[in-house]
Amino acid sequence: MTRALAWLTPRRLLGASVVAALATIALKTLAWYVTGSVGLLSDALESLVNLASAIFALVMVTIAARPADDDHPYGHTKAEYFSSGFEGVLIFGAALAIGWTAIDRLMAPQPLEAPGLGLSLSVLSAALNGGLALVMLWAARHHRERGVTGGEAVEADARHLMTDVYTTGGVLVGVGLVYVTDWLWLDPVVAL
User: CB 3.0-4.6 Å disulfide test: which of 72, 150, 162, 171 passes with 133?
Assistant: First the structure.
């Protein structure tokens, strides 16, 4: 356990989160592209938030690890708290963009194409995010217990990833219902 924890530094975990966000964006964007589902598009847009917040968290953890200096006699550890607030702002912005797109589709519903492929790609992205989030939550808890700088930013990013898994699950159910029932109005409702 100690060896794994030593390797799973906050910077490495947040770097892995950036890589996972890039892969997730690719998978979810492809899922939207093949289906035309606004619900899947909303899920892909939210993944852009994951990427931006992971990059910001990585920068903040790097700053927080700096030693104390004349301007910051107690160190830079407070910098990582900015990453949590930044994620909230990004989530709000993504919600506005998703709402705009979904309302437009609600007014003009369209059938989905290749929903099986799109849903499969989304399941794969959810598994990737869920697995990484669990590792990050475990490591964050152990880093906090040992007083390692960066644990808060890692935990915030991991919780955001888990939220993404839950919302992807909701989108999967909704898009699956659109596929089974042919209720085209349900796709933009799921996006909202």
Answer: 162
- Among 38, 30, 31, smallest CA distance to 111 is for 38
pLDDT digits (tens, 9 = 90+) for 106-157: 999 999 999 999 999 999 999 999 999 999 999 888 877 777 666 777 888 8
Distance CA 112, CA 38 (A): 9
Which phi and psi (to 5°) does residue 191 adopt?
Answer: -60, -40
3-state percent breakdown (helix, strand, coil) of the chain, nearest 5: 80, 0, 20
* pTM of the predicted protein model: 0.80
| Residue 171 exposed, middle or buried by CB count within 10 Å (0-12, 13-18, 19+) | buried
Q: Tell me: the pLDDT tens digits for 29-44?
A: 999 999 999 999 999 9
